[in-house]
Amino acid sequence: MKRFGQMFMQFLPIDPEKSSDEVNRGESYAHFKRMLFLIMLLIAMVPVAVTAGIGYFQYRNLLLSEEHDQLLWRLDGAQKTIDAFIGGLQSLVKFVAREDRYSALLEKDKLQLLFDRLKEQYDGFVDLGIVDAKGIQRSYVGPYDLEGRDYSNQEWFHEVLIKNVYISNVYLGFRQVPHFVIAVVETIPGTNDYWILRATINADTLQKFVATIQTKATNDMFLVNSAGQLQTSSKSYGAVLSRYDKPTNEDGVALYGESRGNSIFHASSVLKNTPWTLVLTEQDYVHKEEWASFKQRLILIFAGSTLVIVLIISPLVSILTDRIRASDEKQLSLLAEAEHSNKLASIGRLAAGVAHEINNPLAIISQKSGLIEDLLGLTPPFEYSDKMRKTLTGIQDSVVRCKNITHRLLGFARRMEVTIEEIDLNQVVREVITFLENESLHNRIQVQTILEDQLPHIRSDRGQIQQILLNITNNAIDAVVYDGIIQITTVSRSESVQIKIKDNGPGMPPAVLEHIFEPFFTTKAQGKGTGLGLSITYGLIKKLGGSIVVDSTVGEGTIFTINLPYTPPHIEESNHEHNNADTDS
Amino acid sequence: MSTTMQILIVDDEVEFASTLVERLALRGIAARSANRGLDALALVRVKIPDVVILDLKMPDMSGLEVLASIKSIDPTIEIIILTGHGSAAAGIDGMEQGAFDYMMKPVDLTALLAKIEQAYRKRKVAA
């Protein structure tokens, strides 16, 4: 499980904190998206593919087995028919060779008569002969002169003696016409002696018979002997006595793949009491059409499922990746924000510490210069007394300037308890606008308000919020100079009330925005601002549990967005500190 | 401003305290200075001042301790906290312990004199 987890982690994007490069991060998300897509596709497709595969093979086996059964059934029918035919021939020959006929049939006339009758029954009879126990052909009717011929050393002669009935392979013999022999043995009445009736039958007879029971044009049915020689002609293997290369000595069905997708069934059945095996081959499946339509449907279903899966997975993966990316980015921006506010806090502490240290020497300078001034007042005028007085005033003015800076840095000039009360922010906004009315009228600046009706009241410190709004609005007035528009919007949100102060001033580049809340950072002309206003504002808002965000575009203007919670967080003792009306930055 | 008014300046910054004493003297106000808490208490015992200008940070004891000690000697002595160190919270603590008010260094002498006058008046009313 752990290993799997690690494996999975490899697909995850690089830790967003470590990857500072925007392009790299984008690539790693693209990689993650691809891997997620592949994994989900795999998870969804494997069962579909397995099901389709099982269906395919099951149905194929079902069809094959049915095919197999049908073939066997047909083979069985054909075999019975051929058995009956051969049985008929045998019976006929047997009937002719009744035991009492031997002496009669030795007479050629009678044999000729019998032969003629047989030929009436079966045109295929070629000749008929009587062979005695020594193997000598004693009587013969037929197209050849075979009387007196000695068969004693021929194989069929021995076979027939053992089996009583003998059917030979089809062979050409010296006649060069395919034929086969049926021979039967009979005893001579009153003796232990026996005789043999031997009938030669044209192989055509067999051929014609097989042709009549062949059912389908696509099938091939033929007889073959144990040596693999065709006994009747075959569509696939050629004329009589051609080679058949498949095993023939057993019953059953075999499937031979002769070409791709076109396997051929060979069903064979050994015919009893003959040297022959009946073979039935089937080139096309009986269910070929069903099989094809099944395959087509299977492919359609598979392709359809794949399409549906892809259609579902694609947007899902996109959504997931986007969510993860958004959450990573949010985390990053939160980290950056936390870093920023930490930095601001450190700078603030440092500045306050420095201010404290400077206050004491500043007090000494102030008192010493005051003393000189006092003494100067007690001394009669002398050459440089006026110049000295001016100089002292310069020192005193500088002390006042320094004092203003240190007091603002310490954020404490006027004693005031933090008083939490219910505040209508719309009311506070209107008050602040009244404070700034003279200045804005003087600069022909329009201050517009879009205040939400029935804005929920919040619990906070009225004086501090006034301070905050004054600082930012005053900055906006400084920014737009003449004929500008300042828009103040209030809107309630789920956990806070939002105030937006928007101006159409020159805006600020990112390099300035980055430092805007740092103490002593100012873009105003030297002496016009201490760079503390926004720093103090930032501190005040944090103290009240709120947040401030600045958004600015050069040439378009700046928007300060302040969110103040409905109720402030726990106010600490340090909140006794309060800020004076600091309106520059 | 009464000429009988007695001021004690308690500040570890010697230059600051002595200069302030001098400037007050030029204005006819009797002022003494101490640079350590214990010295301040000794001076208070020698002669009860009307108003004490007290720094919050001293090498031997904190301003608030000095404040408490002075108040224990004579609770009617008015104390103005004047500090460059310390936070507003400390100032407020001081006021809770009976300081008349608190001011931030550097302070304008006129403003300080006004505050002293108020404190002195309050003491006179109380006495």
Describe it.
- The complex is a heterodimer of chains A (585) and B (127).
- Chain A has 585 residues and is α+β, with helices and mostly antiparallel strands.
- Chain A folds into 2 domains: 65-282, PAS domain (Beta-Lactamase, 2-Layer Sandwich), CATH 3.30.450; 343-576, Histidine kinase-like ATPase, C-terminal domain (Heat Shock Protein 90, 2-Layer Sandwich).
- Chain A is 50% helix and 18% strand.
- Chain A has 13 helices and 16 strands.
- A 5-stranded antiparallel sheet of chain A has the order 2-1-5-4-3, sandwiched between helices. In chain A, strands 11-13-14-16-15 form a 5-stranded mixed sheet, covered by helices on one side.
- In chain A, strand 1 (125-132) and strand 2 (137-141) form a beta hairpin.
- In chain A, helix 2 packs antiparallel against helix 7 and helix 11 packs antiparallel against helix 13 (533-543).
- Chain A is rod-shaped.
- In chain A, 29% of the residues are buried.
- By secondary structure, chain B is α/β, with parallel strands linked by helices.
- Chain B has a single domain, classed as Response regulator (Rossmann fold), CATH 3.40.50.
- Chain B is 48% helix and 19% strand.
- A 5-stranded parallel sheet of chain B has the order 2-1-3-4-5, with helices on both faces.
- In chain B, helix 2 (37-46) packs parallel to helix 3 (63-73).
- The longest helix of chain B has 18 residues, at 109-126.
- The radius of gyration of chain B is 13 Å and the shape is globular.
- The two termini of chain B are 17 Å apart.
